[in-house]
Amino acid sequence: MPQAIQAAPAGESIKLGLNYPSSGRYKEQGLAQARGALLAIEEINAGKGILGRPVELLTANSASKPDKAVENVDALAAQNVAMLFGGSSSAVAIAAGKQAAKHDLLYFGTLTYANETTGAEGHKHMFRETYNAHMAAKALASYLNDSLQGKKLFYLTADYSWGWSTEESLRTFTKTTDTSAHPGVRVTYPRPRDSDMRTALEAARDSGADVLMLVQFGDDMALALHAAQQMGLKDKMTIIVPNLTLGMAKSAGSGIMEGVIGAVPWCWQVPYRYDFPRGKAFVEAFVKKYGAYPSSSAASAYNIVYQFKDAAERAGSVNTGKLIKALEGHRYSSLKDEQEWRAFDHQNVQSVYVVRSRPRNEILQSHLHEDFFEILAHLPGNEVAQSLSEWHAERRAAGRALALE
Question: In sequence order, what are the residues at sequence separation of 6 or more whose Cβ sits closer than 8 angstroms to the Cβ of residue 61?
Fold first, then answer.
């Protein structure tokens, strides 16, 4: 059942519902979301709240299971939340977002990278705060394509919506759509066994590939990287993890992560590298409160709470229809450079960063031992996001309307 973990100080509160995994293989990403949301609410309640009312956070554990996430939406809606947010699995976000629409509530996706979330499965009640697989893959390909010339790639992919769309986007942008030349396997999701991962890695080893596209997330990525290290694959193959978070890097460990390349929508190094004052203030407040650096998961939840606040104040209301109008096409700068809630698909168009994990000794010498990521490249959102025509093509292929409903 939903729990109130940040009560409002006084008065009739505006309730926000966080549908996140506090257990299961993505729990670290879930905890980061809860921490980011709580920090934002603490700051907002220290001021004037939202529309002069205090804010309260209700949470429910999705355990990264779509059916459980749907039940949570119903329970949170019964508690009169003004909006819902959460993720850490695209299957969860898609299912929960559809259920939120039945209650006429907004659903903000935090960690949900599958193209379908704002593509084939998109609807007017869903807003995705983070980037999608298309954006991450295009950024990675832009950085990697020269070095991939003549290389054989092997895809080891989580067998669900995020994994499928990520692999498809990566193959498209790296020109590795020929599966006989660039083979791959899919690994059971959720809860792959160690033996499942090792069997897949043996296929990667035996393929003779130069590059391992490790399309895994959360603890599953850490499991795969540990097995790859034990099998000696890290010495033989370049390993690319298309979607990284600080929590994932910490779970895998500094030695295991060394040299791994991936993409992030944000990491705590970004505001210092590019001088974004509000981003620096967030990082420092988070470290002071929690004794750890914020991941992109935390930043996403923090941003969502503030974006809800700003939309409500522009609309003068928490009415869902008015909030949708206030969000569509809105541009803002928060923890990094300018972002936009794009009107036609509700995708947040934003910069993408290509990163590589630093050497182990550098990480261990850094403050809190959490300086994992070296930023290799920064690509603006308008260069990597789907175009309207590409979005229309995805909708047509899925038999969906060419406008959000």
Answer: 20, 21, 22, 23, 30, 68, 72
Q: What are the backbone angles phi and psi of residue 373, rounded to the nearest 5°?
A: -105, 130
Residue 370 · residue 253 · CB < 8 Å: no
Under a CB-based contact definition with an 8 Å cutoff, are residues 243 and 263 in contact? Answer: yes
31 CB-near residues (< 8 Å, 6+ apart): 22, 247
Q: Is the peptide bond before 265 cis (omega within 30 degrees of 0)?
A: no
**Rounded Cα distance, 132 and 42, in Å:** 29
Inter-residue contact 266 to 299 (CB < 8 Å): yes
Q: Among 167, 219, 291, which Cα is nearest to 63's?
A: 219
Tens-place pLDDT, residues 340-393: 999 999 999 999 999 999 999 999 999 999 999 999 999 999 999 999 999 999
Model pLDDT for residues 16-28, shown as the tens digit of each residue: 999 998 888 788 8
Range list of H helices, 231-319: 246-252, 254-257, 270-274, 277-290, 296-315
**Contact between 342 and 348 (Cβ < 8 Å):** yes
Among 172, 220, 169, 173, which Cα is nearest to 25's?
220
C-alpha separations of 213 from 31, 232, 283 in Å: 27, 16, 30
Residue 174 near residue 149 (C-beta atoms within 8 A): no
* Gap between the Cα atoms of 89 and 344, Å rounded: 23
Q: Which two tokens stand for residue 208?
A: 């003779």
